[in-house]
Amino acid sequence: MTLDKSGVVLSRKKSPATKIAFLTAGLDFVVERGYFWDALVIHTEDGHVIRFGGIAKDQSQKIKSKLDSQAQSYIKRYYQTLVPDLKQAYLQAAFLFNGQRYIRYPIARQWLKTHEHLRDGVCRQDLLRYLNNEAALWAEFIRPFLDNAHHIGLINETYIQTQLSRYQGYFDQVESNPLTDKQRKACVIDEQNNLVLAGAGTGKTSTMIGRAGYLLKSGLATTDKILMLAYANKAAKEMEQRIQQKLAINTLTVKTFHALGKQIITKVEGAVPAINKMAEDGALRAKFVDDQIKQFLLDDRYKSRLVTYFIRFTYPYKSKFAFKTLGAYNQYILENELRTLQGELVKSYEECEIANYLYRQGVAYRYEANYEVNTASPDYKAYQPDFYLPEYAIYIEHFAVNERNETPPFMDRAKYLEGMAWKRALHGTHQTRLIETYSYQKHQGVLTQVLRARLLEAGVNFRPLADDVLLTQLHQLGEISKFSELIANVLVLFKAAYLSIPSLGHLAQRHEDKERMLAAAKLFEPVYEAYQQQLRMTETIDFDDMISTAIAYVESGQYQSAYRYILVDEFQDISASRARLVKALLAQNSDNSLFCVGDDWQSIYRFAGSDVSITKDFEKHFGFTATNVLDKTFRFNNKIGELAARFVNQNPAQLEKTIHSARMVNKSAVSLIKTASEATGINAALTAIYQKQAGSSTSVLILARFSFKKPDLSDLKQQFPSLNIEFMTVHAAKGKEADYVIIVGLEHGKHGFPSEKSTHPLLDMLLPKAEDFKHAEERRLFYVALTRARHHVYLLADGNKASGFIRELVDNNYDILTDEFTGKGFQKQLADTPCKCCKTGYLVERKGPHGVFFGCNQYPLCNYTQKTPSTVRR
């Protein structure tokens, strides 16, 4: 046993030394008498007992006295040195933690970090006698803050309850209906970062107004210190009007992000920036891009690059061997619509490459023309070779086999090889010329070279078409217009993403389809430079410049914000650049506070740059956050709410919340109308609504994924004059509500719901990272559609081609009415016998020249048929 200034060091043989600090042991040293030897027993503060034996009897008391003396001396000195720090800690705590304001996490964390060294001293209450009376009181005051992690939370809870009581009258009257308890609490909590997750119909805007009014009423802020942000001009104006009506204030700053950017630029530059007309007119911007591409096509290098792009990179290449099922392969074909330079839709990328090669070389061909000998029978359709060269009477068959004569995983190898042998034999029998190519040649990178050699051997003459001829054909097919539209969209997203041309190149380099992305980026670059040059020449900016320039001015300190409270509505629609602007404003003052209201379940604008992960990972982006959930909806009834919530939560990445409805019903509030005629379905739904309606003010919203689904409203309004019928796309209906909702277009396919349209990889590369969960955003969009209704939702679907969402609702026993509409024009149920071939389609009844048969509803991508209904239930 040895002593040092601050404690006792115990050493044992073959064991590391143990130090017991005097502050831990205090003065609790006890001599334990033995028969031959004494022992020294030390009781530590944390309850441990350490026994040091084998001490001579004449030494034990001396050792204890020595320990007592040294410990007492050390502890006395220690507490004397603490007095200045105790005073500082006390004064800060008395000011910061006095219950008169909400204690923010950064403030508490900084105080604890600064005064952490006092913890051991103030937590030993038995030793506080070494302090004078005043210092002991300081220690007692700060001890709970150092000793109890929940103490600050308890003070905050008391503060919240006090504020709720004090401003009860305000919260009762600020809106038409009193705010809910959750809304009030969200308004009062004053953390540095506040996220309010507000389900559909739970009163997001009311909470925003309630928060702004509370800040003013409580004296936490004046109007010049509050900034309220919305996404669209209409939303900002509506909020401004409601603030004027509810708070009787017209000096509060309510802006869109673009208007805020404009204000920042004006402040720094001393003049209001001029907005380019193309920023306000998408058609004008698209025309500018189109004109630029036409101009660039006068340059041979650009022309050559564009032709090469269309020949090689119009579609993403995926080998058939990469797909495990025919359904998965069909999905790839469906998403990309592989179309040749001659205009045909083909069934594989490799066929498209062969067709384009023939076309470019001036070799006339026909795609899947009937063979010159009729082979049709009751069991098989006529043989149609892949390509026929009429000038030379040559057939080309492209076989999907590898070097080992293996077929893709989803094909029946034996049957396919048998078909290959049959085709070869047929050509041999009728002495017709056949050239064969194979998938493995594409994999080896020699497909067109091998084809060229075989064609030359067969006496085919090549008359390569000039680039101008190819461009004329591309114009006629509308491909140049589509490309121009793509580049115009890329321009918008590129600027919104706050990128540079070099950074675009880096993104392309890292992309899995690198060659294709680099080729597209090269074609985009001069268009972007021309656009920027146009802005410079006209001394104008666009809306994206408003954000990016504002970010630069705020981050550099050229703009100093006076705002201390930033309130953001519809936060789920935030983009990375807007979030960056908000963070830059917050960073200018440690007292700044952020208050965001949004709902990750309703994030539906990724195509415009919105990033749902910023809401879902809010704390990761902004720091410690107080999160509150508004869980009471005043719009839809419990049956709609339960179904919609269950559906959207199938994606485990969505934030969990339970929404309770103020409208309680006992019966199902969602009906499925199964009919092949949308007009019949809409008429049936409106008739049912008409029969239910309580008065003439009943509103009906017909929703669709795409605007072309709009029915003839004038005819419907004439049939049902007492119904207020409107049509909207689901995106446009965000924020709207109606008594009844009819959702149409619930079928599979590119223009179905969910939409199976693919996003061009160049656009996708500029957008926030796509979610792993299939159709995640489309699922949220369907949730938005469902939750527009107050009383009832009608889902219209053709049972023979119902969308995956409808099948999910039916197959998983969601609480929906499926037999409400029966009889002529309505189907009994969804086609429910899976296709044995593609694994994704369903068998439906069809009529052919030989009578009724059953075929896959994915036809023509899947041509599986069977004669008998088998297990098909209609």
TrEMBL record:
Signal peptide start and end residues: none
MF GO annotations: 3'-5' DNA helicase activity; ATP binding; DNA binding; hydrolase activity
Pfam families reported in the protein's UniProt record: Helicase_IV_N, UvrD-helicase, UvrD_C
Positions of ATP binding: A198, G199, A200, G201, T202, G203, K204, T205
Any single GO BP term: recombinational repair
InterPro entries: DNA_helicase_UvrD-like_C, DNA_helicase_UvrD/REP, Helicase_IV_N, P-loop_NTPase, UvrD-like_ATP-bd
Domain spans labelled UvrD-like helicase ATP-binding: 177-637
Catalytic activity entry: ATP + H2O = ADP + phosphate + H(+); Couples ATP hydrolysis with the unwinding of duplex DNA by translocating in the 3'-5' direction
Gene Ontology cellular component annotations, sorted alphabetically: cytosol
EC number(s) on file: 5.6.2.4
Keywords, sorted A to Z: ATP-binding, Helicase, Hydrolase, Isomerase, Nucleotide-binding
Name of the protein: DNA 3'-5' helicase
Organism name: Candidatus Methylobacter titanis
